[in-house]
Protein 1
Amino acid sequence: MSSGRRWVREFRVRDYDLGATLDSGQAFRWVFRDGAWEGVVGGRWVRLSSGEGVIRAESGVDPGNWEWLREYLRVSVDLEAVLATFPPDAVLAEAVRSCRGLRLLRQDPWECLASFLMSSTKQIPQIRQVVGLLCERWGKPVRGSEGGPMFHAFPEAGVLAKVSESELRECRMGFRAASLRAAAGAVASGNLDLEGLKALSLNEARARLEGLPGVGRKIADCVLLFAGGFDAAFPVDVWVRRALGEWYFPGRTVRAAEIMALAEGHFGPYGGWAQQYLFHGIRKRAGRVAPVAGLV
DNA sequence: AGCCAGGCAGAGA
DNA sequence: TCTCTGCATGGC
């Protein structure tokens, strides 16, 4: 083991469940090891753990002023204020109770888009595997500490744009490879300005993303919610569809249009957060969530 | 062994 | 506008 210098920063937080946040299907690169979460954010390795009213971040290389991590974790978001915007219904109250401290991250738009492009009809552990393979093969090497083991950043769009479809398929992503390659080309060429989406309306930004092959309503909403700052974007996947159907329309079959109308109209300006509570809540109930607790 | 997974797009009704 | 289907791959 290296005994070199370590940089540490503690963020004062309350009601922040790091495990639920990092392992609820928003991001796919966090690994829980020796009591902490290890990952790479914006090309920087970091190790996160929960303490008494704080999130503790460590790195073995100079992290600068840590603002990149504060932004990623959205430490300054007032969760109580977010929850106060939720409609007062019993279903949502129960979901919030079962996932106390779950928060949304602010991720890099390219990593988020690419990851969710590879996600369709895959289980979360499988998505993690595919993303991991992609990073190992084409991501820039990153060290967590002087002389320590090597990690990898998420591959840049410009790199993936030059990779052949069959090489991408070697990362086990199957038919999704062509879409990933096309998206990488659009981003690398400047044809699609992901940062610029943040200045658009939700509908405009969504339409831009849906212009990419392989990106429909659901993947677009994931990117807008998890990376674009659109807290009202409400991705509807199989789990959320199940939760809305079972809990808001119990005992009968529901048409897809009814689900979408509820998703768009019921949950308010932080609907995406409500969506994440419903998603994590029903997956928890189904036994699909690893029991790593840690509410600060 | 067969069904399902943080979907999408094209075809046919 | 709805429903059906193929697409790759792996977990359960």
Note: The two ends of chain A are 29 Å apart (CA to CA).
Protein 2
Amino acid sequence: MTPPQPKAPQDPEDDLVALAYRLRLACQQISRRVRYEGTHYLAPHQFSVLARIGDGPRTPRELAEIERVSPPSMTKTVACLVDAGLATRRPHPVDGRQVLIERTAEGAELHGRIARERDTWMMRQLLELDDADVDALRALTPVLEQVAAR
Amino acid sequence: MTPPQPKAPQDPEDDLVALAYRLRLACQQISRRVRYEGTHYLAPHQFSVLARIGDGPRTPRELAEIERVSPPSMTKTVACLVDAGLATRRPHPVDGRQVLIERTAEGAELHGRIARERDTWMMRQLLELDDADVDALRALTPVLEQVAAR
DNA sequence: TATTGTTATACTCTATAACTATA
DNA sequence: TATAGTTATAGAGTATAACAATA
């Protein structure tokens, strides 16, 4: 791995650059590893939409913006989920142009199963740590969530 | 988001399940956000290979296994990098069947530029935090790295 | 006239199977 | 005979452009 070009040996900013680098890589590696758990059930982008419509119904356009893909791509992804019985289309109550995508009970069940597999992996890792480290992680997770919310 | 099915209200394991869930999601969201930085230069899988051969030359087969793609896919990805002048092919010194993929100076430069953009984003987030939180993160990053190494 | 969603079409990344060269 | 790498071909996922329906 290429270290992030230190600017001056004792510059306190370097410490922060190094921390940013290591923290970024650790998050990316954990995320990547987690993704392998439960991936065989569903393609990542389909899982992502399935998770999103768990909050409530969304229009294809909203989903395309959230997932940062084009509307035609989202049309296809939604069609896959609908064909698989994991989501349904419903007409918008006031705007005839729009469609609402909802999660079916089957979709919720599958989402839960995949999420549980990922949580299980993560929990196995936590169980390997010292209690003090787990406590520290517990205290720090809100900070990570704050960073993640940007 | 679906919370991870609590088993019993006061079970201390629930706490750990909840922590696993929140930590997993935070890492995934940070990783996802970081990925948007510098992505326009290179496709994610190409960047990933470019980073990997920064450690030293690798054969296509090794790269395919590390990236968990098929050998033909890696052949194409490597061909793209070579065509772009970011990597080169070199015959294996002792095994005439194998090829070594090396990063060029241009490849190293581009990798450094993308990595720097991602680090910059992460550092901007750190600068928004309280000093105490940064110190806590500094103490905890090795723990996250330990988890990431599984 | 603007917006939502879809269809048409093409490009990229992926995989499996088959082929070539070397061990 | 087994292995490394590539080529051939096909299947997803993505994008832009064009179209239909509705506001």
Note: Chain B touches chain A through 59 residues (CB under 8 Å).
